[in-house]
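Hi, here's the filled form for the chain we discussed.

Project: internal
Contact: R.S.
Residues: 460
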Amino acid sequence: MNYLGISYNMKHIPELDPGFVPFGIWMNEYEKGATVPIAIAVERNEGSVSVRHAKIYGTKEMAEADYRFLERYIKFLLWSIGGFRVSVCGCSEIAKKLQKAYSPDGKRAFDCDFFQKLYERPLEIVDLPLDQCPTPNETPKPIGGHLNGCRIGFDAGGSDRKVSAVIDGEVVYSEEVVWHPKKNPDPNYQYEGILDSFRTAASKMPRVDGIGVSSAGVFIGNAPMISSIFYCVPRERWEEVKTVFDRAAAAIGENIPIVVANDGDVSALAGAMGMNVGSIMGLAMGTSEAVGYVDKDKNVLGWISELAFAPVDLSEEAMQDEWSTDFGVGCKYFSQDAVIKLAPRAGIELDESLTPAEKLKVVQKLMEADDTRAQKVFQDIGIYLAYTVVQYSKFYDLEHLMLLGRVMSGKGGDTILSTCQEVLRDEFPEIYNKVEIMLPDENTRRVGQSAAAASLPQIL
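And the returned structure, exactly as it came back:
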């Protein structure tokens, strides 16, 4: 197979998506012939800077491949690490093209707007000589794992909110409450729901020593800068959103420590606590793709890991994500959207009046009955996953990959897992032997998302 003059090999072709061009596999082959050194520095909050060194061809004949490689590479860095300034060092011509793409009216206008909202400053693409590349400054921080005292753990989901009362690591009470935060433009709705859950958990303990929150979104400190549970809240009311968790904690008691973390990172923390391991990524396939990561020392890296919008497929025919407007990004390969995308190609007709979640259930029901059409759907997702694990391993130090979310339930999830393992064992034995890919074990399930969230604050 060949893409932009780069030949690459795949032993396993997705039957329902034969045009799939895995970015990680193509990148491996591209890098073998590249000789011109460059560097990319991504700066984010608190002076953190991540630097990646790479090589391009730097010839007229390979100009299209060079741009495609670097544009996708930087896109991945932005959505994995996060940042408000990207310094492109050693390739001025490409840097200038990227400046046009990552502008308010450029091809990557969505990314430009997202990161401006996240960091409250414009996204910059800076053209620098290679010898002026910024100095790296990584700032990993410990996350949770604290069990002492009386704690509230809260998981703010898009359709329900879960809360646990935890005393010295033991869950003494938990509940789930249905709510509809994505439909409410008044942030007081979310605030009252959060506070109600806090109060319920507090009533089950003699005192509250700390509060931990797991929530979808990207946070700076405890402030939600981008969050799906505040989807309808107008931006002019975002100052209320940024303080919503701190205000709810203050209403429970004075000076109670509270820590808010991305739900993906808390999933990875739950796995790290349940299995007592590090270098673990949690990847949840549900409404979208949600990812979190804890390093070998059980630290978070301060990265956003919003891999739903990071590229995995270079195919010109890849499915477009309606929100970000980009093609071939993770949410269309590792979520219910992937199942819905592939099902018609397998000959499964889905009633358009059904919700996405209901469509997923239709395919899963067929899978439970061993329908061969449904099997093809989940096998293809397993192939997607295997080749993407190769890609993720280039950016994250992976030893454990824990698969979560409603797409991973039942026989479909088992098929995704076994297919992924088979492809890696066949084509990438070094990754197969290094990275344990699994479903959550029973101990991790017992830890749970809200209980893991309870362990976030350190209580002195």
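Let me know if anything looks off before we file it.
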